[in-house]
Amino acid sequence: MKPAISIAAACVIASLAFRGDAVILRGNSFIFDQLIGLTLVGDLNPVDVERLQELLLNGGGGPKKMGGMVTGLSAVVSNLTGQVNTSSAADKAAVKDQSSKPFDTCAGSDTEETKSSSKVVSGTVTAAKGEYDKEEKKVKACAAKQATVEQPAKDCEEVVKTLKGAARTDCHEGTKEKDNDISMCSILKTHRTKTDWLESVLEWFEKQDKKYTEISTNCKADKGNLTKERKKCNEIKKNTEQKKDSCTVHEEKRELAACEVKTAMASMCAKYDACYKAAVSSYDVLVNVTKTRVTERKLQWRMLKRLDCLVQAYDKKGIDKAKLDKCTGKGKDALKTDFLTIDFPKVPGKKPCESKPSPKMSKECPDPTKKKKKEEASESTPSAL
């Protein structure tokens, strides 16, 4: 405020010098000039105001000589009073702003989209979660497609299983050992002659030959179908494995996204703690400095009002002693400074900060140490020869 006051002082002094006005107070002109100078630069204290009042009361310059000084002094008082109001308003705005805005910024709730959030938010975390959600959708879509792709392989396995069972049944029937049953060679009562017996045995052998020829044909066909179906299944399985590989890519990307979220959330809370602490410290400094300024400002306001009262005690006729005496009165409305008081809001409490992702997401981001040990164990396991 002092640079502005100095400019005002220079302007007033220049204007008084230009008019050639002079104030001589019974040999106290030097002291009077000193007090006026202090008034112009804003360094006047209550004792100085009392001395100025005494000098003005005892002065004998007369209205004509005092007129220029009173007018200039009135302008300075008006200017300084305005600056007091302006600086008070600026401090009130600063306190209001610094008691909330930095804390909102720390918590990431300083935008229209996030101001209603009850917990700490971060653009980095939001972006990382968005990337994770995108990869999660791809994994689910791939899994659904994979289920469709895997069904033919499952159906094929069932067919192979059935064909293996049929081949086992048909082929086993033709290769099992002959039992000790020789009843087909028995001579029955209907066999009146050897020819009857031979024809009977021949008929039995013909049926058996037909039966086992059919079994052999079926066995061969079953084996052929089984070989063909296995080849078909191998192609289907190969295609299925290729589809599985594409799903693995999405799963790996989802894993990386989950780890990004985990890292971002931990970093968010660490940064919030440091930011909140700094904001509290900064606000405490502002409060202490502003309290001192408020005290000084109130004192200055009372001095300016006293000075204004002294200025108003002069009119065309000269000094109005009755008005001048009122300047020392107590409890005057003009001397009240309650409006300069500044309320200092308490700093907002810390918002909850989630430093860890959901259990599902945490599981999808394996511990690097455990993952490395698992990979090393897998590499050290000898393959079956």
3D structure, described in words:
The chain is mainly α and 385 residues long. It has two domains: 2-111 and 280-340, no CATH class; 123-271 and 357-380. The protein has helices at 2-19, 29-40, 46-58, 62-98, 101-107, 123-175, 194-312, 321-326, 359-364, 368-380, and strands at residues 314-315, 318-319. A two-stranded antiparallel ribbon has the order 1-2. A hairpin with a 2-residue loop joins β1 (314-315) and β2 (318-319). The longest helix has 119 residues, at 194-312. 20% of the residues are buried. The model is unreliable at 1-30 and 381-385 (pLDDT under 50).
What is this structure's SSE topology?
Layout: H1 2-19, H2 29-40, H3 46-58, H4 62-98, H5 101-107, H6 123-175, H7 194-312, E1 314-315, E2 318-319, H8 321-326, H9 359-364, H10 368-380
Antiparallel strand pairs: 1-2
List low-pLDDT spans: 1-30, 381-385
Strand content: under 5%
* Separation of the first and last Cα atoms: 90 Å
Structural class call reads mainly alpha
How many helices in DSSP terms?
A: 10
Radius of gyration: 53 Å
**What percent of the residues sit in helical stretches (DSSP H or I)?**
over 70%
Instruction: Please give the number of β-strands.
Output: 2
Strand order of the largest sheet: 1-2
Averaging pLDDT over every residue, what do you get?
A: 75
Give the tally of structural domains: 2
| Main beta-sheet annotation | 2 strands, antiparallel
User: What sequence of helices (H) and strands (E) makes up the elements?
Assistant: HHHHHHHEEHHH
Approximate shape: rod-shaped
